[in-house]
Write a structure and sequence with these properties.
The protein is α/β, with parallel strands linked by helices. Helices cover 35% and strands 21% of the residues. The structure holds adenosine-5'-triphosphate. The site of adenosine-5'-triphosphate has 11 residues, from strand 2 and helix 2. Belongs to the ABC transporter superfamily.
Amino acid sequence: MTSPPRTKPSTEGIGVHSGISRTTEKEAATAASGEGEVAAFRLVGLHKTFGEHTAVDHADLTVAPGSFYGLVGPNGAGKTTMLSMAVGLQRPDEGRASVHGVDVWKEPLRARRLMGVLPDGLAMPERLTGRELLTYLGQLHGLDAAEAAQRTGELLAVMELDGPAERTLVVDYSTGMRKKIGLATALLHGPKLLVLDEPFEAVDPVSAATIKQILKRFVAGGGSVLISSHVMALVEQLCDTVGVMAKGRVVAAGPLDEVRGDRSLEETFVDLVGVEIGGGEGLSWLVS
Ligand SMILES: Nc1ncnc2c1ncn2[C@@H]1O[C@H](COP(=O)(O)OP(=O)(O)OP(=O)(O)O)[C@@H](O)[C@H]1O
């Protein structure tokens, strides 16, 4: 039996303007910098070593307000470590990070209000349904009950985590469902900046199209997005600005068209990170 085609859920009602105390936060961010426009996200000299190994090597990165930033880099380049320091989940050895002028380490609560975060390997209360989780987090964010219920309902519907999925606890979600509930938790409080580590990993094509739509609307509404991804085509499709990370450093950054020139991002990437494409040699036992 063939199942009926899934209708693309509406992404209406979700946008950057649904958050709390925006004006106050914006004024605070501008005042903090003493300038007319502050970066949505500014990482300066972030550094982290694990024993002898330098995971992030004095990395700098700036996301302009209203920009859609794609961070790419080979496995082990330091993207997740840099982003987890940048959002306050892991303490850097050196360096600082600010969101709209608010220092992530000096004023963590104010910074967190401005940010929606989807970390890699998300840790969250899991013995709850998606609705229970979002309702609980809405309370933690200080949303009133009616507002939290409305946003929860919209987010579950958009992410297709309502209906039969409501009977499943988060602990039993598939990998893709976990990404989607993670994104919903990042959006719930109406942040100005989204920091999303591999948001499309393990997500089915229909859900990916929905997430793209949400993120585009978020940026069109004045928000800023930073995603990390290994999918160059996706970064080229979505992002106006890219950063390339290799061996703990941001080795190239700027507008997409300037970074890739007249080549594809993938060709530029391979050039910049200085890797040889493997797979052509060895493994002779695979081919008879
Ligand atoms: N807690 C840790 N302890 C020791 N080493 C770590 C730890 N976290 C990360 N590393 C190391 O730091 C380096 C950067 O890892 P990281 O996960 O940040 O890279 P990445 O660019 O996100 O990689 P991927 O694309 O594979 O997710 C790697 O060499 C990794 O082994």
